[in-house]
Amino acid sequence: MASGYTPGLTVSARTTIVKVRRLPLKGEVLVKADDWVLPDSAVARANLPGIMQTVKVASRLGVDASEVPDLLTIKLGDRVERGDLIARTKGLFNKFFIADAKASTSGIIEIISPISGNVGIRESPTPVEITAYIPGRITQVLEGEGVQITAHGALIQGIFGLGGERRAPLQMVSQSPDQPLTENDINPSLAGKVIVGGSNISGAALKKAADMGVVGIVVGGIIDKDMVDYLGYDIGVAITGHENIPLTLVLTEGFGTIAMATRTFNLLKSLEGRTAAISGATQIRAGVIRPEVIVADETPEQSANHQDEVALDFTLHPGAPIRIIREPYFGALATVTELPTQLVQVDSGTEVRVLRATLNSSGEEVTVPRANVEIVAG
């Protein structure tokens, strides 16, 4: 019987979690190797260069660009405040027809151009600080860039998400994996929580949760139209996580109304009341990024007693439950029926290994590249 191996979403009560926290540009690392950090601990800091604002001095003074250096009241490297005088003409008899050029912003004089007659003022830098996000130990320092943090605890990966990193206590709302979240389920007591539903969240419930101050939502699926209506625009499934929304959404199964995997639901239920780190960032192309829910050990003592859960079997074989993670069947659940050994040419002209599977929703048998599926565990 043919078999193979394919990755699946991690759903584990006890595993080792490694997170790299990296600055967007070179900066300063604030911690050292082997330090224990808390979620709000600042681990690295940098300064984003301020915007360069241009003052067209020659134009304002009505002089040739070559005359500007002799008319300046400032020099390179000087700090100026908005409205400060930076250049002035001598005028007639040093008294009449005098023209001024003033700073349009506060900052440092970085450019004086005798060619254009312009002066460049660099605004103050914007400090950027990254935090640990999860409790754990610094296991690697990336000089000038960031750190690697190793933690231990529960990790639940989803298939798709929206919104950035947030932290809040977990609160079960649905009573079973196949129970959807409706508008009636959302109430003020859920403010400041990461709530867990079953098979689906309605568009009305999603909007109400955002209005009520819910921090995050973990649920099996959502109707794509409800998601688009909430966002106000269509969204691709390539890269997410930077949406300007007040909560984070993690889908564990896909689009539509799909019961959350029993293993996932029961694990989340066992973690109720504990603080979860949640991120909706999703990238399904090169450099895969999964939306996630992390409940990590809070102290070094807890972490020291860690033992990883036995890894699940991700062998691909006839009868194995899978999820398709590429269009045109993105998010669909299916069961493997056959693993052909011969290579098949796909639309791009590349020859790849494929599998045949029966879609759970319709019973249709489809052929998809093996690289486009993952095992569903639990």
Give structural attributes:
378 residues; mainly beta; OB fold (Dihydrolipoamide Acetyltransferase, E2P); Glucose Oxidase, domain 1; SH3 type barrels; eleven-stranded mixed beta sheet; five-stranded antiparallel beta sheet; 6 helices; elongated; disordered N terminus
What report would you give on this structure?
By secondary structure, the chain is mainly beta. Among the domains are: 52-122, Beta Barrel (OB fold (Dihydrolipoamide Acetyltransferase, E2P)); 159-290, 3-Layer(bba) Sandwich (Glucose Oxidase, domain 1), CATH 3.50.30; 315-375, SH3 type barrels, CATH 2.30.30.30. Helix content is 11%, strand content 38%. The protein contains six helices and 31 strands. It has helices at 57-61, 68-71, 203-212, 224-231, 262-270, 300-304; strands at residues 4-5, 11-22, 28-29, 36-37, 42-48, 52-55, 79-80, 85-88, 100-102, 107-112, 119-122, 126-131, 136-142, 146-157, 160-162, 166-172, 194-196, 216-222, 239-240, 248-255, 275-279, 282-283, 292-296, 315-316, 321-324, 333-338, 344-345, 351-352, 354-359, 365-369, 373-375. Strands 2, 4, 13, 14, 15, 16, 17, 18, 20, 21 and 23 form an eleven-stranded mixed beta sheet that branches. Helix 3 runs parallel beside helix 4 (224-231). The longest helix has 10 residues, at 203-212.
